[in-house]
Structure formats: C-alpha cells, structure tokens
Design brief:
Strand content: 25-35%
Oligomer: single chain
CATH architecture: 2-Layer Sandwich
Largest sheet: 5 strands, mixed
Radius of gyration: 15 Å
CATH class: Alpha Beta
Number of helices: 5
Number of strands: 7
Helix content: 25-40%
CATH topology: 60s Ribosomal Protein L30, Chain: A
Low-confidence stretches: none
Mean pLDDT: 96
Structural class: alpha+beta
Strand order of the largest sheet: 4-1-7-5-6
Distance between the termini: 6 Å
Length: 158
C-alpha cells in the first residue's frame, strides 16, 4: 500500500453584496467570495490537496478561470471531478482535514451541512471530513474582511 499526503490552499477576495459559499453552503453575509466559479475556497483547497497528493497538478490546471464552462459552477462539481481523476489513477481517499480563516460570518453553525455536502461529493463518510474555522484576530486582509482563506490536507492511498 502506498500512502500520499496532499496540501491545498486557496484565497478569494470578499466583495459587498456577493454570494458567500463555503462547503456548498450559502451563508448569509453582506460580503461574499468573488471568483470565476462559486469561489468556494474550502472546496478549492480540498481539490488542490487531492490533486497534489496524486501528482495531478492543481485546480487551475484542470478548471481554468478563462473557460466559460466553469463560470459560476458549484465547486462541489469540481470536487467530484477531482475525485474521479484520483480514482482513475487507482487512488482512494482516506480523509481530509480543512481549516477556514475568516472574521465573519460564523462558520461553526454550518459545519455539519458542509461536511455532508463534501462527503457526498467525495463519496466518503462524514467522519472522514474535518472542518475547522478560526479568525485572524482582526489583523491583515482577513481581519479587515477583504478576503477569506482555506487550507486543507488529505491522505490518499493506492
């Protein structure tokens, strides 16, 4: 058995009166993440962790932000596609551990729904998905609510 670890990172700018999607959940907030797809930083970081672990480059390589097919698409669809790519290379996914960093809105009330969405897209048990959140203690672009960041690690095996 061959084990591999992957690391993912994503950041998106926050804009007034824009939808805010994290883990496939639409959050009520006066700002939201801006991007070509639905700008779900959590799912994007997980995609990059998976792709990196399997040596499949990164999310931008497979889903270019210049391709109109991906404009406004749910990132959960991109995640499902990433999982298919791993399976085609003979990998299975053990688990994902993710961290969100943002000042607002509060994420904890939505973690269970996020885990359900992500586990379904990955064909995993919810217990195999960990999602945590923290603030940046009002410092920097995150503290000023100018952006949101997500980190993810995963373990895959062949």
């Amino acid at each position: 058995m061959k084990l591999k670890v992957g690391f993912g990172f994503d950041v998106h700018q926050l804009k007034d009166n824009h939808p805010f999607v994290l883990g496939g959940v639409h959050l009520e907030h006066h700002k939201g993440a801006f991007g070509h797809s639905d700008a779900d930083v959590l799912v994007h970081a997980i995609c990059d962790a998976l792709l990196g672990a399997a040596n499949l480059r990164d999310i931008g390589h497979h889903f270019k932000n210049t391709d109109e097919r991906w404009r406004g698409i749910s990132s959960l669809i991109l995640l499902t596609e990433c999982v298919k790519m791993l399976k085609e290379k003979g990998y299975s996914i053990n688990n994902v551990d993710a961290m969100l960093c943002l000042e607002a809105p509060k994420v904890n009330p939505h973690v269970s729904e996020m885990k359900i969405n992500i586990a379904k897209a990955m064909d995993l048990d919810e217990d195999d998905i960990s999602i945590k959140a923290t603030t940046n203690e009002t410092m920097g672009f995150i503290g000023r609510e100018e952006g949101v960041v997500a980190y993810a690690v995963c373990l895959i095996q062949k």
